[in-house]
Design brief:
The chain is α+β, with helices and mostly antiparallel strands. Among the domains are: about 90 residues, conserved putative lor/sdh protein from methanococcus maripaludis s2 fold (Beta Barrel); about 90 residues, Elongation Factor Tu (Ef-tu), domain 3 (Beta Barrel); about 80 residues, Orthogonal Bundle (Helix Hairpins), CATH 1.10.287. The strands form four sheets. Strands 3, 5, 8, 10, 11, 12, 13, 14, 15, 16, 17, 18 and 19 form a 13-stranded antiparallel beta sheet that branches. The radius of gyration is 45 Å and the shape is elongated.
Amino acid sequence: MKNRMQIATIGLSISVVILSFAAGMTGCTRRNAESKTEAALSQVLVNADDIVRVETRRLASGVAFTGELNPIQIVEITARFDGDLDQVLVREGQKVRRDQALAVYHPRDVKDRLQATEAAVLAAQANLRAAENAERRARKLFDAGAAAPSDLEVAEAQRSAAKAALDNAEAVRNRVQEDAERLDVPSPIAGWVSKVHVHGGDRTGVGDRLLTLVKTDTLELSATVPSEALARVQPGTPIRFLLEAYPGEVFEGKVARVNPTTEPGTRQVRIYMRLPNPDGHLVGGLFASGRVIDLMKEEAVSAPVSVLRKEGQEQVVYRVHQGKAERLPVQIGLVDEEAGIAELLGKVTPGDSLLTGVLPGLRDGVRIQILSGGGTEGASSGTRTSSAR
């Protein structure tokens, strides 16, 4: 009996020790979990792409526009007379000189018309002589008292009409004679053939379109801007734009003219800019988009607008400083809407690393943990640098 009581006492003691050890282990596990939770709450995990550098760069802002780039001169060549085209001497896309022959007419119709106009001149000359003779006879009869004043007036009017008819016949003959002396169609400008509307063997009438020529050594940008921005857009204001056909290439110039009226049915005002194109690098009809630059700053402390955060009435940014997030109130200066870059006025300095994007738990003093690559301020790897266009 005594032995059994000793054994029971020993077992009870062992159980108490085991329970005490288990309780201690449970408390330790709970404390470790709480410590990990507190650690997780005291830091923000960010990717390297969530950090951008503050830079000093040239910023520009202005009025956005869209427009089209067209040749400075477009010439429609029309038929001078009725006739059959013998042949067209040029093709679309061909460069032509001033006064170069573009097409040639068959001479038959022109020669026939020339003969007809010469006959009309001879007939008009004969009519004039007859009218002059009739006027002289009427004047003699009037002087002799054998004719009424009205008879003399009629004779004078007929002579005047005959003289006008002769003048008209000679003008027509001269014009046809010029056509007969030059049966080709000359180019009035040095440029390029944009469109050929006819072919050899076609019959044309006076005024029919034959060819379209363009002059592209200078192009003109025609674009529209809101009328509300008219005070910011004046002749001489700088322009910067892009062309879809040449991605990444920036073109610059100045406003040459501003239309004095708005576009019908809109509140848009058309502006114009000339762009030299001596090498023919650009072609007409290209779509352009850009800005009229009304404000520019050569050295602006700036960063992408994505670093800006609205907290209450303040605009703030968060700088990575000594491994922690530092809250800095800032003011916004010049904004380049096209590039998405803003000038930051405040304690921000070039080279600072700012946090961007949506970062849950971000607050002043929280520790920043970068997940991949890079580092905090001063590190070059893993930090994205954004630049204005």
